[in-house]
Amino acid sequence: MNQPVTPEHLRHLLEAYVKNYSESTGEQNIWRNPLLVTARVDKRFDILPRIAADNHLLPTELLPSARSVVVFFIPFAKNIAIENHRGKRPCLNWGLAYESTNRLINTLCREFNVYLEKMGFQAALVPATHNFDHTTLLSRWSHKHLGYIANLGRFGVNAQFITPSGCAGRLGSFVTNADLGDSPLVNEKELCLHKNGKKCLVCVDRCPVRAVSVSGIDRQRCWNRLRSNHTEIDAFKVLEDTTDVCGKCQVLLPCSLKIPGGEG
User: Which pLDDT band holds residue 142 (cuts at 50, 70, 90)?
Assistant: First the structure.
């Protein structure tokens, strides 16, 4: 028999897991308090092939009985963002943070799965990263676009995802046949200062290869820079081959650690 599950139950699990992760694994604690939203699977998600990628999966293609999408954000600590701000190339700790957070997200999703199964439900998971097409550079399961529909945040000019805790961090998501309803954290149409008609565009100036512009992001130019960072930075030789990072357009911006103009 199924047991009741609510968004608050999942939030408590998420917060406790992230809080205890460093002690249980020996990894450095580099995160702030995580965020989580849920959204009922309905026609809102039919837009995914139009706004993300034309072959983007629908929640029911991942799990035919899906009733809810769960999206969460694990924000980096401020010191990681400050360190990565220096110079034209990313720092090693930014790459290590990327890898460490992906491991956290993947094990966390398994923890969610175990919990939901114990409560009598099913869940379907995808990896934290590298589920994209290397030709189009678009993902078949975009955590950002799912978060947009579920109202966890909004897109900035830099194509990064601005949440109540900023854009410097990592996203994860999964679907479940538990009916969790909607639990949005953002109701505003836009959070980006520029998109709200205010002066900013700091992210455009920060990109070292001019891949970010007012009209959008040049994905190929950005991807080439990510790959060159991996091959041309000697310190990055200790990182996995799939660790393609930069983050210059995410750090020390008005939206890096909070909603621009908000508290925090």
Answer: very high
In angstroms, the CA 198 to CA 177 distance is 41
3-state secondary structure of 187: coil
Phi, psi of 221, rounded to the nearest 5 degrees: -65, -40
Question: Which pLDDT score, from 0 to 100, does residue 262 have?
Answer: 64
Burial class (CB in 10 A: 0-12, 13-18, 19+), 171: buried
Rounded Cα–Cα distance for residues 136 and 127 (Å): 19
Rounded to 5 degrees, φ, ψ at 67 are -120, -15
**Sign of the Cα pseudo-torsion (240, 209, 88, 254, in order):** negative
The span from the CA of 123 to the CA of 105, in Å, is 15
Distance CA 85, CA 232 (A): 18
Quick one: CA torsion of 229, 231, 237, 243, rounded to 10 degrees?
60
Contact 11, 33 (CB under 8 A): no
Cα 114 to the center of its chain, rounded Å: 22
The C-alpha atoms of residue 264 and residue 243 are separated, in whole angstroms, by: 30
pLDDT tens profile 212-260: 999 889 999 999 999 999 899 999 999 999 899 999 999 999 999 999 9
Residues 175/69, Cβ–Cβ less than 8 Å: yes
- Could you tell me if 41 and 124 are in contact, meaning their C-beta atoms sit under 8 angstroms apart? no
For the record, the structure tokens of 13 come out as: 């699990």
